[in-house]
What we know:
It is built from 5 helices and 26 strands. It is mainly β. It folds into 2 domains: 155 residues, Deoxyuridine triphosphatase (dUTPase) (Deoxyuridine 5'-Triphosphate Nucleotidohydrolase, Chain A, Distorted Sandwich), CATH 2.70.40.10; 165 residues, Deoxyuridine triphosphatase (dUTPase) (Deoxyuridine 5'-Triphosphate Nucleotidohydrolase, Chain A, Distorted Sandwich). The strands form 6 sheets. Strands 1, 2, 3, 5, 6, 7, 8, 9 and 11 form a 9-stranded antiparallel β-sheet that branches. Strands 12, 15, 17, 19 and 24 form a 5-stranded antiparallel β-sheet that branches. The longest helix is centred in the middle third of the chain and has 10 residues. The chain is globular, with a radius of gyration of 20 Å.
Amino acid sequence: MEAAGLTALVTAGMVRADVPLTAGQIQPASIDLRLSREAYRMPGSVLPIAGESVRALAAGLALERIDLSEPVCLGRNQVYWVRLEERCALEPGLEAYANGKSSTGRVDLATRVLCDGSPRYDRIPAGHHGDLWCELIPRSFPIIAAAGVSLNQMIVFRDRRLLGQREITARHAAAPLLLNPDGTAAPASCVFDGRVVMGADLERNQVGWVAKRTHKPLDLLALGRHRPGDFFEPVHRPESGMLFLEQDRFYILVTREKVVVPADLACEMVPYDPTAGDFRAHYAGFFDPGWGLDGGVPTGRPAVLEVRPHQDDLILRHGQPICTMAYEALQQPCSRLYGVCGNTYAGQDGPRLSKHFAG
Length: 359
């Protein structure tokens, strides 16, 4: 559903909050979700079962209750549940799906949305009435959070339709969805199993960043005020052409290819075939209609991704497939495209850190 439809949902009260939603929360095809003041430190991750509320689980398991009306430091590798300011009153047949925002992933903050009676993360069932909750797990750094911060975004849909192999191949042939670094269309082979496959870029002077171990907390409210060197080290182009990724270290890398998202489509970055290596941390999530369009011209933009080798060290080579894009059709073309309203990452052309960092 695109921005006009999302605004209509808010007006109709199907997405509501005690603190009214702002116009800035309505993105071209998603709604930003905000933390409320109600939070709990949990002993681990757990999902509700049918008929069970998230608050009841928290009441029985929480190690402590936390008030986020003022900024609070959340410890590294601790599990927190925070009620979201937004709640749903969806009509029958209307459902939603949530994902972390790009800035959330780039600071290695794992987030997942929960709701009453749903034993699945990030899925809000059709016709759901009730609160939404966010599970937060700071991975690399302690995090300072407070009510009002947006870490997740939500799409709302009826009969969500992902493009299949034939349809996405035809779309790419008619108007490229993926471009080579020189701006030419990526070959048809970039479409595999109904997804557009992208490789790692290891041929720029700085190919990425790696998180440092630090005692300093990253303040989610302090936009543009952190020094990169306090939290990350640059990763330079490997002379051998092979990049050695250490197990359980967090990396920010960038794709070789440039992505285009037309006005009538949206897409989500998803892991590549897990048989290619277990290295997923979490990805940038949704890419709104208009990504990679410059005045309507498909110039493309590389995608930044977050990588963590889980089980073993990993050797990555230039162009090695590392992630894919799953495209889906909107009910109607989006009238307000990404980048038109000064979105943070619209002009990115490399392994950019989150909006919390200077420069």
